[in-house]
Amino acid sequence: MRVLAVFSHPDDEIGCAGTLALHARRGDAVMLVWLTYGELASQFGDQRPEEVARVREGHGRDVARLIGGTYRFLGFPDAGLTGGREEALAVARVMAEFKPNAVITWDPEDVHPDHRATYQATLSALKLVRIPKLVGNAYREPIRLFHYYRSEVRRPVVSVDITPVMEVAESVFEYYRAFYGWAYTLEAFRARRAVIGAEAGVRYAERFQVVAPQAPALPYLPAPGDPRRE
């Protein structure tokens, strides 16, 4: 597979670091894309945005190395994302080049406007990537879109067993936690993934929702093997 992760700022990818590492370890191609450098992060105090951008680009480089993937920054302004055409087109051009089978991004209802805009731009890119006049060599193969879990969003849930690569997920989290001095602990991070894992019948898991049409109502519960179960 070829797995693309599209987020707003470095550290947004913490929620899928295990899944990305799992695919990379299997030999799949993995790419992380951030629409901004996160140059307005308050933890940097009065540092100039361009100085912060250089630091955070280093974060992206280091995390991509930990996960086993490649990375790219698209350079849109932090706290200025709209989910509009230019952002969607930039993401679509990455898709046309990378040719992903699966894309992971933010959920559509997150409180941060950049996060919601990133979801919208990524969703729109799935259409734009198919248009040669926009992206050059269009990519028309099926792409499955996954977003971070949101309980109020009614979409199918997919859990990924990250137990074999939990140490990588922890390394990514700890990398950021140590730099920013977060109060949220590694133990709490591990416990949350254990809760998701317990619900899915494994030790540790990450959870997403897949953008797919709601299944039609059936007259009866489907029997095992009935194709309508999917």
TrEMBL record:
Pfam families: PIG-L. It comes from the Bacteria. GO terms for molecular function: hydrolase activity, acting on carbon-nitrogen (but not peptide) bonds, in linear amides. InterPro entries: GlcNAc_PI_deacetylase-related (IPR003737), LmbE-like_dom_sf (IPR024078). Gene3D superfamilies: LmbE-like (3.40.50.10320). PANTHER family: N-ACETYLGLUCOSAMINYL-PHOSPHATIDYLINOSITOL DE-N-ACETYLASE, N-ACETYLGLUCOSAMINYL-PHOSPHATIDYLINOSITOL DE-N-ACETYLASE-RELATED. This is LmbE family protein. It comes from Marinithermus hydrothermalis (strain DSM 14884 / JCM 11576 / T1).
